[in-house]
User: Fold these one by one.
Assistant:
Number 1:
Amino acid sequence: METKNIVLMGVGGQGTILAAKLLTSGLMEAGYDVKMSEIHGMSQRGGSVSSLVRYGDDVQSPVIEIGSADIVVAFEKMEGLRALEYLKPSGKMIVNDTEIFPLSVIIGAATYPENILEEIESKVDLRVMAATKMAEELGNPKVMNLILLGSIIKSMALTDIDWEAIIAQNVKAEFCQINIKALHAGIDAV
Amino acid sequence: MKLLLTGNEAIARGAWEAGVKFATAYPGTPSTEILQNVATYEDIISEWAPNEKVALEAAAGAAIGGVRSLCAMKHVGVNVATDPLFTFAYLGVNAGSVLITADEPGMHSSQNEQDNRNYARHAKVCLFEPSDSQEAKDMLKEAYTVSEEYDMPVLFRMTTRVCHSKSIVECSDRVEVADKPYEKDIRKYCPLPAFARGMQVKLADNFKRLVDYSNTTPFNYIEDNGADIGIIGSGVAYRYAKEVFGSSVSYLKIGFSYPLPMEKIAAFAKGKKTVYIFEENDPIMETEIKAAGIDCVGKEQLPTMGELTPDRIRQALLGEAPQIIEANPEMVLPRPPTLCAGCPHRGVFYELGRRKDLMIFSDIGCYSLGLMAPYNATDAMICMGASISSGHGVQKAFDIKGDHSKKVVSILGDSTFFHSGITSLIDVTYNKSNTLTIILDNRITGMTGHQENPGTGYDLKGEAAPEIDIEAMVKACGVKNLISIDPNNLQIVEDAIEWGLNCDGPAVIITRWPCVLKKFSAEDKKEFPTAFKTVASVDLEKCIGCKKCLKSGCPALAFDRANKKSGILKEPCVGCGVCVQICPKQAIEVEVR
């Protein structure tokens, strides 16, 4: 099979790295060759953070070229716009409908752009997820990342993998149930 | 057993499998996680050294003493470690020793982009270059065999993409390697000129033997696809080339890249229409291959700066531009890194930024961010420890010129002070300088993701360790004017800076407050019982929308443009109180969470 490309894009602290870890673990268990690349270092300090996941029969490069992602999942609205260049023309974008202000907005030097979703929708196939709100309703805003992971799994037709086992292997026992619930909520929402 | 590992995790696994017993490092992106992972193996003594020179010296000592040793650092760290490296190459090893250099093509979080493969040539040590996690593990094990067989430390070049990308690794068990007996041998271990000349000859002889190794090792292999175009590639650049060209060209994959397998290269190039060299950054293989009289194409067409990613290869060699769906660039605001909400550096940079009579020489760490808006405080930075010594030089220049319009403030963190600030501070006192040094002691090594250091009271394994007293150290360096302060109290910070600038002779201010992201030790809990247990909020009745609080640069603040009022995000706010003190209308209150 041709190598598939998934981009997870967010802001430091949003849980993109755990989502990518679960995703890649599941893909490996399913027998795919997998590579994943992330750039971190200063991401704890409010920067953009991206995880690039590739899987297939034989994956060479750990990075995803611009214009070649099958799916881009943005954990924050403006990050969706930032990651748009990764998407191939026939690709799909999922955006979590939440805003995290960069410092320029916080200090009043800039305004957070309006109509981001309209801008994305005018260019690509977009699905908007209210993942942050859904996570709050589930009782833990942090599991937003698992809801978005669920949306990736459904969109990429990967639901046959035993994700509950993958979560159990990688998440502390006390948080397993809520994470599994969030994953299914994400799968069902797409 | 198959595991999905980053290159750094694979190195740790490889060290364990290879029977390594001693490992040491100074943290630095992208190398930091190597030692953090090595430390999870009980069979390996794992240490944070105060700097890279010390780390390499300790690793050299362990190898001489008779156990396999590993040392890891970021590319600029190797600059610090070059003094021992060059002579360690002369001495050779007893048990094997490997130095890992984690280079940063693309400068994702570094101040320069140097190609440390040059050091293999310069220091005369052989060199491995893995291209993914499996190779990182396998080559590391091989590197120990080579180190012992050819009696030299081995340089091992990782790059950010190899360090931080995950791929599948087939793992095996640890091989218990017999410790080597230590025998006194001054002709081997004492490089007096008379002996060093002999060592030089021995090293050259070992390199001659290594040429044969390079031509025969399975880590340098040909993938013959019957094509008349050939690619010679090393590191992740080889993977990128395969991504672009697949089986349409033939490959010579170079895993052991110094000395180069020139016979194999000549045989590969023979009959090919064109041979391309794929290597990230400097044209090192290319220069040597051309010098051997073999025609090839490299940096004439491929970039020397940044990563050699597939899109850049397509652009450079195929003239293919990717089809990009572009976002309206005006709608994508940058997200520069910022000091966290509750960062203990905030108060210091807020006060420093308000003054116009300072030349601020900063250092490598989170406080590098002091140059950004809204502080705009920092004037210059070079490398670890340079804040104090380069600051000293600037002050001398000002004094020589009789320019008293600005005075130098040097600013650095606790771990950086231990790394190389101490000798710099001695330079200041010994040479009768009069700079003000501010040591931001946040009780941890922050920027690289929270590593213990000699001032925290804990070691890499998480065990209690002697806590080196920064105040006592500063005094011992000859500093007479010293105070320690709470950096969250702006009046105290302002007064301390004013005091320090007016001291006769050099002055030092130590701030002591933990990093907001630090996992508190029992001692931290005792020393800072109130830290981060509060939250601030804005009284909208009192707020006049003057935006003065925003000058703190705190990411927990949010200004409501419609209502012209400040607000505070409850989630990130830890109630440090800096904005409370800035507000001219006492509109911000702090309460217990």
Number 2:
Amino acid sequence: MKKIWGTAKPTLLITLLLLVAPLRVVAGEVEVLHWWTSGGEAKSVAVLKQLLEKAGHKWKDMAVAGGGGESAMTVLKSRVVSGDAPTAAQIKGPTIQEWGDEGALTNLDAVAKAGNWENLLPKVVSDVMKYNGHYVAVPVNVHRVNWMWANPAVFKKAGAKIPTNWQEFAIAAEKIKQAGLIPVAHGGQPWQDATTFESIVLGIGGADFYRKAFVDLDSKALNSPTMVQSFEVLRTVQQYTDKDAPGRDWNLATAMVIKGEAGMQFMGDWAKGEFTAAGKKPGKDYICMPAPGTAGAFTFNIDSFAMFKVKDKSAKVAQNDLARIIMEPEFQEVFNLNKGSIPARLGMSMAKFDDCAKESSADFVSSSKTGQLVPSMAHGMSTFSSIQGAIYDTVTAFFNSDMSAKDAAAKLDKAVQGAK
Amino acid sequence: MSTQKSQRQWGDYLQAALPKIVVAPTFITTLIFIYGFILWNAWLSFTKSRLLPKYDWAGLIQYERLFANERWWVAAQNLLIFGSLFIGICLLIGILLAILLDQRIRAEGALRTIYLYPMALSFIVTGTAWKWILNPGLGLERLMHEWGFEQFTFNWLVDSEMAIYTVVIAGVWQSSGFVMALFLAGLRGIDDSIIKAAQVDGAGLPRIYRSIIIPSLRPVFFSAIIILSHIAIKSFDLVMALTGGGPGYATDLPATFMYSFAFTRGQLGMGAASAMMMLGAVAAIVVPYLYSELRSTRRG
Amino acid sequence: MVNQGQSSIFSRLAVYGALSLAALYFLTPLFVMLLTSLKTLEDIRSGSLVSWPEEITFEAWQMAWTSACIGVDCGGLKGYFWNSISMVVPAVVISTMIGAINGYVLTQWRFRGSDVFFALLLIGCFIPFQVVLLPMARTLGFLGLAGSIPGLILVHTVYGLAFTTLFFRNFYIAVPDELVKAARIDGAGFFTIFWRILLPISGPIIVVSVIWQFTQIWNDFLFGVVYSAGDKQPITVALNNLVNTSTGIKRYNVDMAAAIIAALPTLFVYFVAGKYFVRGLTAGSVKG
């Protein structure tokens, strides 16, 4: 009897608190524009919603599914033009700067100061979140893009070794093909082609070359023998994909690896969510490894919410609360456990995370010291969207035709310079 | 006396002006929401607008960029291929089905509904099904293999050279039934006595169709071509749902090109320039046709 | 209708054969969708595109309607259905009414410039909607209609007017001039003539206009996604979100069921009123 009371009391208290809490604080409404609608992503957003509602605010969901947020960007633009910007929107990388230039973003310095963000965030992350030195966005996670997901059973069956560089890749892929299986699970969509390509460039050219090409957009790097070689490797990879690849969604490609139809997939760590959902264990049922030739290097992709100027005072309070909650360890942990990424804030316990995430977290820190931490081109972290688009166009055109690697490098340079 | 007279005059004026007053709202909305917006877009095409509209004059730079962009020419060429095949095949199937249905067919009502229903569905709805059917690993090709036709290949959807034709297949599927309805209506509107007279003169059925019936359907052709070309130029959902513009950008159309540059990529100025080219194409092809048709009907 | 005296059995068979073949082409996608929506996930994985379901289940339908996840909310399509209805009905009614009166003026009360007006309107049909997205957003914001259903009604009405006007103009042009002239001599006014003479014979073309507008607006995605906010989204937008929302596994059967549910109203309209549609077209709308 006593014991029951013991547990019931706190719950009662919490319930009472929850009932009272909305009355105490200024209840506002946040409208959050995002395109996280699939699998672990949707679960992660639901967590944020709950936490915000616990703080007494109302969550107005504004999910716009489709691709890499193409529809969502259109919606955001017309909302801003019509003078009805959402509270927060899923924007990342240099695009945050573009929105800052338009004068649409709000200042979060007060929240950042109270939350000690300056010390909690690695510099590469906080740089992206600031416009003119002021915080305008909140990071939710750090994805590593240069992963390779392999099914060890397939490799075993084919008698192949899991490759650590691109020469080994060609040998292993050939063996898997001989065994009658699909070497590379790929979805033929421009962003997936680009994701594979950037891992190849990093593996062939190294971090410095990568940075020269995709961050500095240097003509000498873009149209160089190293780039030609990277395109040649991309051609090899393409030849080891199946013919139904064009248009396939990435998670269906991941499913091919899970089911043992295909040997490996080059995809960011969000793919892990699919393995987890299928009940597979890392190290046993599947192996996560840096893409060939990129061990020690790290292409990062940071998801973030940019905060827009809101008129309403209560909405501003809610907005600040949203920013605060996103940075709190509770959210960062749950969210990233669901999404497969690692927390954006430093010094968090990784105890609940799996081995892949632990490796990712360790590499994130070490690569930042060795200068091998580079922004992902394919995920809009290294350039404005216009240049990213120009690179996409060339890579995907190469992937889907019989263009020569030499022409591709020349075209890449021309397209990038033309989009500047 | 005089006030009464002026009141009557007022009433007359009002009566005379009433038709204009009644169409005025439509006229004004057309001017603002169509032509005003086109002008606005034209202005943007001469600026360096990126993410959001900017209004500083920048000359022809966006057009230069557009013409230097390979993807744009793929899109333009695709519209040419898609547009002509789509309109041509829809007209052909439409007329054929209409003529066949006009032969006192038993289940005409049911068949007509079957042909017409795709018009009721958007590609947001049917896109997934089409993707399945056309995908070699899931759809028709696999089915044929399972039925024992091992040599059968149908991989247009994943072939950059052929993918645009799958867009035609799905587009024709949606619209040809509507064209059929237009022609069926036209056939039903033809005076029987003319045909009977021709039959009395000993003309065969194919000849009657060729030299009497089809020429008299000219107004139907007009309506059908206007509607079909409007669908072709605006085709957006179709491509987005079926191929997403892929493989690569092999099935990009001007409408999807414009959307992706103006909205996804933050190159609003260039998107605006591509839209102006689309409007230019419409003006060059549709307006003369419209003009000649409207003139001839007015005379007749 | 063409009379054919000496139709041999062979040519009849050929006609029916061709018609059936066409019917097959038109029915396949719907058939695939329907079949898939009735299968279990296991069934879909093991079977082929057109294989018959091992057991027929309506689970997917129920899920699509009440419990499928659309973004964060897992309430199915239920709520969005009403959004679409409350947007489509006013937009169709208003645009048809204005179209009717425009057509009336353009045929029976021509004035200097009325042909130019018509041509301007007709060319307006061809404007790609992507062009108007941003300026329209600005206008809606200015009118205080951004992100609301009235805003969507306005947009659909404005861009539907060209078509409804075209339909009614082409219909009324076939009305004999004498009819209206006689009424005018009798002293009937502008609206009287419209009410008493033209409207009563307009049944068929009203059906055409309503069907056309209903399907266009119901199926619209672009305006719907851009100009709606949160839980006010029309069903096509919800459908798109639903199809792209997968938790772990992709439920093709639920996707297909949801797609059919989203299409039911337009399908219903075509199946019920399709007969009148062709009749309405016959009644004059195709006479340029």
